[in-house]
């Protein structure tokens, strides 16, 4: 039962990351937008959680980088939003 729960968490993360990429390709999201970066961050975190049950070093490393890239994107988004609010 616990394995199924971690599989569901991991698959949800996969759908978020892949969904963000498809939305980007379809022009429904921008690479600097909040939606794209939040979907990537959430998906990577969920995938990282799923790796707690069935660890894989390569997957763990790529999810850490995916989280870092998403956090950079969110930082840049919030910084740009802050600058435009002041202007």
Topology (elements, then pairings):
Elements: H1 2-25, H2 34-51, H3 57-86
Strand element count: 0
Order of helices and strands: HHH
Distance between the termini: 54 Å
Query: Could you say which overall geometry the principal axes of the C-alpha atoms support?
Result: elongated
Structural class, please? mainly alpha
Short description:
The chain has helices at residues 2-25, 34-51, 57-86.
Give an overview of the whole structure.
The protein is built from three helices and no strands. With 87 residues, it is mostly helical. It has one domain (1-86). Helix 1 (2-25) packs antiparallel against helix 2 (34-51) and helix 2 packs antiparallel against helix 3. The radius of gyration is 15 Å and the shape is elongated. The chain starts with a helix and ends with a helix.
Which key terms come to mind for this protein?
83% helix; 3 helices; CBU-0592-like domain-containing protein; 87 residues; CBU_0592-like; transmembrane; single chain; mainly alpha
């Amino acid at each position: 039962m616990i394995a199924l729960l971690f599989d569901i968490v991991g698959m949800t993360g996969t759908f978020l990351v892949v969904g963000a990429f498809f939305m980007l390709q379809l022009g429904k999201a921008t690479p600097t937008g909040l939606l794209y970066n939040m979907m990537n961050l959430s998906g990577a975190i969920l995938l990282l959680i799923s790796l707690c049950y069935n660890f894989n070093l390569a997957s763990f490393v790529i999810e850490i980088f995916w989280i870092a890239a998403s956090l950079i994107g969110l930082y840049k988004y919030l910084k740009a939003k802050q600058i435009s609010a002041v202007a």
